[in-house]
Write a structure and sequence with these properties.
The complex is a heterodimer. Chain A has a single domain, classed as MetI-like (MetI-like fold). Chain A is built from 8 helices and no strands. In chain A, helix 2 crosses helix 4 and helix 4 packs antiparallel against helix 6. The longest helix of chain A is centred in the N-terminal third of the chain and has 35 residues. Chain A starts with a helix and ends in a 7-residue tail after the last helix. Chain B has 16 helices and 17 strands. Chain B starts with 11 loop residues before the first strand and ends with a helix. Chain B is an alpha/beta fold. The longest helix of chain B is centred in the middle third of the chain and has 18 residues. In chain B, the strands form 4 sheets. Chain B has a 6-stranded mixed β-sheet with strand order 6-7-8-3-9-10, with helices on both faces. Chain B folds into 2 domains: 238 residues, P-loop containing nucleotide triphosphate hydrolases (Rossmann fold, 3-Layer(aba) Sandwich), CATH 3.40.50.300; 119 residues, CBS-domain, CATH 3.10.580. Chain B is 37% helix and 26% strand. In chain B, strand 9 and strand 10 form a beta hairpin. Classes of the chains: A mainly alpha, B alpha/beta.
């Protein structure tokens, strides 16, 4: 039997791991997406890498961290980031480039400089795609954070694995249920945030 | 942040020896042209003639390969393009309203970037919306997608006027609109033009529009300026056959006597019909939805008259009914002669009439469209 305190501690570790990774991923992704606007080469590398890493099984990414970075929080963070980074970069980049060229042309025509075009035209137009990417990355991070328990990140994965190894359904569920609830929470919270920052375009 | 104005009024814009090449072909070749302060100069010509390129070289959206563009003697090459463009109003065919910003934010964007106070911005937005007959309280917080084509075009104009620029560049601003809408907006634009009294460079491919709006018309063909002058000079003294061909309105009237209204009218569409007991408020919404600027008011079978979006917007009490404000409109019979109908329209200063056949509306006669169909 697991005590409530252990579950709460594990949940907290899990939340910290997921949100730290997500936060760092966003910080890295958005400048990267903007940089890709300026360099065809970078765009190619980012997009190719995105598709490649997407294809590798998550567990393999986690496992490969051990010989490279050892075990613990940081290798777990890097492993999750590798997977979470790319949906954000890719979606942000697509959002930034999918702006009607006539709008950009017009913005230049009335005297907006490059920075102002990014800030007032490209970025707001990219919000919907960007948030879809962040939401997806959040859910992905939550599920990989379960796996990283194997390389010593702590979190809900630890309780789940204990339950699996000991054939203990109660232990297993006390890890799995909070993990599922977290996933639902991440999905909901980002959906709400997305609605808040995305203005209505068409008629009511 | 608030930058000093480059010029308070335009004395002249001068193109000297301007050439722009794309690969081996010329977009503009050896262009010398002077635009006088306060005039509306039309640039007209077939597509690929270099008219838009010429326009876009004024605000440095396109840079010439050789030659100079000077405004009031100031070479545009010596001015930061961002600063230059903030001193010039810009209107384009597909309007280019930013879909993620409200109408108010669209109009207020450049003033905001210029560091205006919030209150000052708001006041300017309200003044401009009133100026283009869109009540601010109704439109300020809407998004462009919620407006009809004609309303969006008006917002485009209001936005270009935000910084009160002494110069406007307009690239086929009415090009994407249907003929009735276009005519209505041209009429309003003429009024606005007289009121603001600014220098305007206007690109179009529609000679009727050019003759109606232009103080002077510059005809371009294959990257070269063919002739520039006031409309009457082009008509009576065309430089060559091409000019004569473009402006020769006489030829169009050759078979006028034999033509009947029914030959040249546009079919009547139900979208133009509104009931006399409709309230003004509902009529505005309905007309926005139907993308029309003019509507014909009927009471049952009986034609009461015409209303325009502008009339409705200016109407004091929104609960008034259309029956109270409809203006009488000319009607013709399908068998009437076109010459008769056109002179009637011209005498009354109108451009629109309904064609009735034994009490049934069957068509709409638009003076400009008649002319176009005669070509």
């Amino acid at each position: 039997m697991v005590v409530l305190e252990t579950v709460l501690d594990a949940t907290w570790e899990h939340v910290v791991l997921v949100y730290t990774t997500l936060f760092v991923s966003i910080l890295v992704s958005i400048p990267l997406a903007f940089a890709a606007l300026y360099s065809k080469k970078l765009e190619l590398v980012v997009m190719k890498f995105a598709n490649l890493v997407q294809a590798v099984p998550s567990f393999a990414v986690v496992a490969i961290m051990v010989p490279l970075l050892g075990i613990g929080f940081t290798p777990a963070l890097v492993a999750i980031m590798l997977r979470a980074l790319l949906p954000i970069v890719k979606n942000t980049y697509i959002g930034l480039t999918n702006v009607d060229p006539a709008l950009i042309d017009y913005a230049e025509g009335v005297g907006l400089n490059q920075w102002q075009i990014h800030r007032y035209i490209r970025l707001p137009n990219a919000y919907p795609a960007m948030f879809a990417g962040i939401k997806f990355a959040g859910i992905l991070a939550n599920s990989i954070a379960v796996l990283t328990a194997f390389i010593g990140s702590g979190g809900l994965g630890e309780i789940i694995f204990q339950g699996l190894i000991g054939y203990n359904t109660n232990t297993l569920l006390s890890g799995a249920i909070p993990a599922i609830m977290l996933a639902i929470f991440i999905d909901l919270s980002f959906t709400i945030l997305e609605k808040k920052v995305t203005p209505v375009h068409a008629g009511e | 942040m608030q930058s000093k104005r480059l010029f308070d009024r335009i004395d002249s814009i001068r193109f000297t020896g301007i050439t722009k090449r794309y690969g081996n072909s010329f977009a503009v070749k050896d262009l010398d042209l002077e635009i006088k302060g306060g005039e509306l100069l039309i640039l007209i010509g077939p597509s690929g003639s270099g008219k838009t390129t010429t326009l876009r070289m004024i605000n440095r959206m396109i840079e010439q390969d050789s030659g100079n563009v000077t405004i009031n003697g100031l070479d545009t090459k010596d001015v930061d393009p961002v600063r230059l463009r903030r001193n010039i109003g810009y209107v384009i065919q597909n309007i280019g309203l930013f879909p993620h910003m409200t109408i108010g934010e669209n109009i207020g964007l450049v003033p905001k970037l210029e560091g205006w106070e919030k209150k000052q911005q708001l006041e300017r937005i309200k003044t401009l919306l009133n100026f283009v007959s869109l009540p601010p309280e109704m439109f300020m917080d809407r998004y462009p997608g919620q407006l009809s084509g004609g309303q969006q075009q008006r917002v485009g104009l209001a936005r270009a006027m935000a910084m009160d620029p002494p110069l406007f560049l307009m690239d086929e601003p009415f090009g994407a609109l249907d003929p009735i809408l276009r005519k209505q907006l041209q009429k309003e634009f003429l009024k606005i033009k007289d009121e603001i009294n600014r220098t305007i460079v206007f690109v179009t491919h529609d000679i009727e529009e050019a003759l109606v709006l232009g103080d002077r018309i510059a005809i371009m063909n294959q990257a070269e300026l063919v002739q520039v002058g006031p409309p009457e000079e082009l008509i009576f003294n065309p430089a060559n056959d091409l000019v004569a061909d473009i402006v020769d309105t006489q030829r169009k009237f050759k078979h006028m006597d034999t033509l009947r209204v029914k030959d040249l009218m546009s079919p009547f569409e139900n979208k133009y019909v509104l009931e006399g007991n409709t309230e003004v408020c509902d009529a505005v919404d309905e007309m926005t939805k139907r993308e029309i600027e003019n509507a014909f008011v009927f009471e049952g079978e009986k034609l009461l008259g015409e209303v325009t979006m502008v009339d409705l917007m200016k109407c004091k009490s929104k609960s008034q009914k259309l029956i109270d404000i409809a203006r009488p409109i000319k009607t013709f019979q399908p068998k009437d002669s076109v010459a008769f109908a056109l002179s009637e329209l011209k005498n009354s200063g109108e451009y629109l009439a309904v064609v009735m056949n034994s009490g049934e509306p069957v068509g709409i006669l638009v003076s400009d469209e008649v002319l176009l169909k005669l070509i």
